[in-house]
TrEMBL record, chain A:
Keywords assigned by UniProt, alphabetized: Amino-acid transport, ATP-binding, Cell membrane, Membrane, Nucleotide-binding, Transport
PANTHER family, A to Z: AMINO ACID IMPORT ATP-BINDING PROTEIN, GLUTAMATE_ASPARTATE IMPORT ATP-BINDING PROTEIN GLTL
PROSITE patterns noted in UniProt: ABC_TRANSPORTER_1, ABC_TRANSPORTER_2
Protein family according to the UniProt entry: Belongs to the ABC transporter superfamily.
Major subcellular location class: membrane
Gene3D superfamilies according to UniProt: P-loop containing nucleotide triphosphate hydrolases (3.40.50.300)
Residue stretches making up the ABC transporter domain: 6-252
Cellular localization per UniProt: Cell membrane
Membrane topology: Peripheral membrane protein
Keyword field contains Transport: yes
Species annotation: Alkalibacterium olivapovliticus
This protein's name: Polar amino acid transport system ATP-binding protein
From TrEMBL, chain B:
One Pfam match: BPD_transp_1
Domain annotation ABC transmembrane type-1: ranges: 18-206
GO molecular function, one term: transmembrane transporter activity
Organism lineage string: Bacteria, Bacillati, Bacillota, Bacilli, Lactobacillales
Protein name, entry field: Polar amino acid transport system permease protein
Keywords: Amino-acid transport, Cell membrane, Membrane, Transmembrane, Transmembrane helix, Transport
Amino acid sequence: MSEPIVKYNNVTKYFDDLMVLDGIDFEIQPGEKVALVGPSGSGKTTFARLLMTLEEITDGTIEVEGDYLWHEEDSNGELKPASTEHLRKVRSNIGMVFQHFHLFPHMTVLENIIEAPVTVKGIDKKEAIKDGKEMLEKVGLSDKADTYPAQLSGGQKQRVAIARALVMKPKVLIFDEPTSALDPELVGEVLDVIKDIANQGETSMLLITHEMDFAREVADRIAFFDAGKIVEDGPPSEILYNPQAPRLKEFLERFMSTQASPE
Amino acid sequence: MWDWNYAFEVLPEIASALGVTISATVVGFILALVLGLIWTLLIRSSNKIITTVADSIVKFIRNTPLLVQLYFIFYVFPQFGLSLDPFTAGVIGLGLHYSTYLSEVFRSGIESVGPGQWEVATALNFTTKKTWTRIILPQAIPPVLPVIGNYFITMFKETPLLSAITLVEILQTAQNIGAGTFRYTEPLTIVGVLFLLLSYPASIALRQLENRVTARYS
Ligand SMILES: Nc1ncnc2c1ncn2[C@@H]1O[C@H](COP(=O)(O)OP(=O)(O)O)[C@@H](O)[C@H]1O
Ligand SMILES: [Mg+2]
């Protein structure tokens, strides 16, 4: 098997005295799509935000393509906290799509998408516009290039946010409940876009979701979180149809019974 | 009582001093904008010492009278080897004083930008500097432009204070004329009218800007 693209080693996270992640080991292989499921408050978001460097790690290490994310090795091979420069270098492999989109309200849709390639990567503006338009086509919003985010529906906003993350060509793309803030009738269009990207293959994905059907369709693996630990981790068929851990069985039962099927 | 001939005779001289008043306002305000933004960024620093020091300086300046500060800069600084001409001293005084108000305005503008914008900037790997210049400030400033404009007009109307440190702006010019002829009514009235003629249209323009901003950001 090839080297994992992401590797969590005994990762622990505290918020003050509250332990939120409890010594987690976890790997993502290149191109692999992993869904994270579990009860609210079990630590899924925090787990992903550590990888995006939006929360600071308390203990343990995370490696991205063999480089430490939060640490650097000094000349003696000892780990010390990463410099801003090192953090930025490793972070450039990771992208994230947020529950609440966070589009730049002062920029048009196309400007939203080309902003980071031009400002962060220094890509030529003409080229960035070309890439940006291609990406807009991919998410089905070519006609909205010159629109401001305030004029878009939630589903359209999220598709722009996905395009904006994708043009940076991250090796790992995190989705944190990308459809939870959407009206039910807009969920489908966003999930379809994510499925498309997933089918194109090369990007690894970390998908936090409550949409079990979606997880089953898209994910190569599902990891079940409970109380800051990954309690069970395996292919969708195992996790969904042959759960072992009592907490997972409970979760799935509760989920299936409260989740009114939309169709 | 009112002598039109005399009024028209002194008008050109007073009006010619408008240049000093306006340039003191403009230069002072630019200084206030730059310093104000610097205070805001220093106060937001993650270094506790920097934050405390900057915050104390701002509070001190904001809570002492501008006139006292002007006297200090003009009459006390020379004792420490820093002699400034009235215009420079006046502009520094105005700029410093108003920077503390503008710092507060910038702070409220910046706080109105949600944490999600900072997070997405990190996720897209923006540097701190680019996060400020491309993401945060372009959202923070437009909504507070009307307030900033208000301070501009207020500052303009406070420039006569600079006559206290011997700057010959329009009030000082009028006073000088009055002192020579013993007629103050016309020169002082002209000063008042000139201020009104400039600040009233400015406040109307500002009202329009405010309406545009409200329409855009609500
Ligand atoms: N910034 C924070 N400060 C303090 N506690 C937090 C913070 N973020 C999350 N938590 C707590 O960490 C726990 C895990 O939260 P989270 O990672 O959001 O879980 P999930 O995404 O699975 O719902 C919860 O108890 C939550 O209240
Ligand atoms: Mg969450």
